[in-house]
Amino acid sequence: MTELKDMAASESEAPAERRLNMIEAINDALDVTMGRDENIVIMGEDVGYFGGVFRCTAGLQQKYGKTRVFDTPISECGIIAAAVGMGAYGLRPVPEIQFADYIYPGLDQLISEAARLRYRSAAEYIAPITVRSPFGGGIFGGQTHSQSPEAIFAHVSGLKTVIPATPYDAKGLLISAIEDNDPVIFFEPKRIYNGPFSGYYDKPVEPWKRFDASVVPEGHYKIPLGKARYATEGDELTILAYGTMVHVVEAVCREKGVEADIVDLRTIVPVDIETIEESVKKTGRCLIVHEATRTAGFGAELSALVTERCFYHLEAPVERVTGFDTPYPHSLEWAYFPGPIRIGEALDKILSE
Amino acid sequence: MADRPQGDANLGDNRPKLSLHVPEPKFRPGDAVDFSHIQVPKAGAQPRPDETTKPEDMLDFAHGLIRVLGEDNKAHGAWDPKLDPETLRTMLGHMAMTRAFDERMFRGQRQGKTSFYMKCTGEEATSVSASMALAADDMVFPSYRQQGILIQRGYPMIEMINQIYSNRGDKLKGRQLPIMYSSKEHSFFTISGNLATQTPQAVGWAMASAIKGDSRIAATWVGEGSTAEGDFHSACLFATVYNAPVILNVVNNQWAISSFSGFAGAERATFAARGVGYGIASLRVDGNDPLACYAAEQWAANRARANAGPTLIEFFSYRAEGHSTSDDPSGYRSAQERDEWPLGDPVMRLKNHLIEIGEWDEERQEKMDLEAAEYVKKTTKEAEENGILGHGLHHPFRTMFEDVFEELPWHLKEQAEQAIRERETKFPEGLPNGGKGA
Question: Can you tell me the ipTM of this complex?
């Protein structure tokens, strides 16, 4: 089935409106794909009976049984390696790593194995696995529950890296990731599991249900990997962002009355270069925003791409707003976070040139 | 391979169908709990081998359970460390203090004074008693549930609370999640928060001590769930290959968040038995028996100090509370488990022992508990003068950039200036609550 057919089919079946937060949307994507494909299995720490520490797999073991949704030993290396082996058998595993900060013991299996299985076996073996993992800060998680390591994975040939920013996208992107025949890192911005984030940590979280992006159709639909979306459109500048930061920049632009093309990349590998070029050539200015550390962050790649491809359209140097190059601190979390002030300053600078 | 049948389940060959085993704990919420399957040998039943015994000559100790305190509250057998009453009272005091501390800090988190806390209720002996059997300068590499070691080693409680509150008094500068302490002065390694990473590091420290002809040994603690990490296996291998003077303590508290010990392999073998395959002397110990904990740790310390090699100790215990303040165990295990746990409570057992030998009474116990609670309360108040999390009394912004490297490189200098500028934009009149800011 083609993606278009899938989308058309599910849209015609979908009831008018059903609003979910991001956790529910992810749960729904897992449920829908598991119902369609018996080869999909879920495993990870606390994902079975308990349904995951963030509840993303709640109810799935009950529905699909213990051999399709199960807890694992606390061994990220083992979890990812077992997923690679299951993929070699022909299953389609969706392992969960409880926090992205805990993914590193599995790096050899991801970087040297999953990412290269197709290449080194000339496509005899593939690793159709989707590693789901909550990432990002803003929950007072300290250095071990806050990191944004997406650039590490973007740097690896053979891995796709996906980061949703809304419940609607989370479901559609996760289904695409699961059905993709290559390994996908699916980072879930945990700060926005329950509602989008304005960057003002002292204001209460507005639940997703108040936002249209929480309308999540029933059934199967896909959002293609590698296709960005315009979160807002405007002529003054282009802002490239993903995950939590899409909402923060939206709030800042709204507050400052800046009309921006906010491009939610959704997938950083493969990145939607067409949309980036289209927008930057239109606006002539480009701001890149991510929560991860700055040096060799994904913003550096984006900045290089924009400079290489849009140089003669640029009216100001490309700017980056990022987390600082320190471990994620506990008490100074909000001084670290690239919030409204840092973004506002960069906007003023780039628009004044 | 023409003689081999086609390996395709759909072709209908007549080989038996395989099935996957997924462990399941015996009891879930609402279930009646019956722990009669847990073998609890009589206290004092185990012989005590010489500390230099070869691992292959003491295999039974990886499967039994070393116990000293019996149902009669008396100390029994060869493992009785024969501690004088004053030492026993000190041990009880540290355990009671640890418990009082946990109570107060847990409450503090619930009152919004910090983001996170982890209790060690029911497991106090595995840190306090074990730590008492070590020299004060033996290096410890703990996990996140050994606050009892710091209390036993006399680390100032106010430092612990400052750390938990991430306030301006926190000597770790508010960088770490609560309870991730560090005190080089107390030979206490910085707690990572990542699991089992400390175990091979302890082995490395012990190897260094041996390289240098030092006399200090190393000890590490890890939960049974975390032994699943590859780091733990690296620890065992390096320990045995280099005959390192190290003690690998595995605290088997039965639960790793919602995953019972079966997900770390407990359905097939004890955790002590992990050591056997590596040729490491391995002891399985009643972790709720403070005297057995002390005796086993002392045995292992003697062994390491005699250059007779590493020891793996499994402390068989029970996590009486949730994993942390972020966890609610009523969602995945039966609430009855705690009450039915066949090895009792370590504080009660030591208290009853002291009373049994005529060295303690209920009044003194009550007074001690009260004094412990008062001390924690008073120290908490003192610490609160340095601030609580999120109320402005934190370390200055520039400290966020220090210690990434020994010296601040240009890009961190720029970023520090950025952070301070942001603070001035946000708080043009200075930080709230009299904070000093940059």
Answer: 0.87
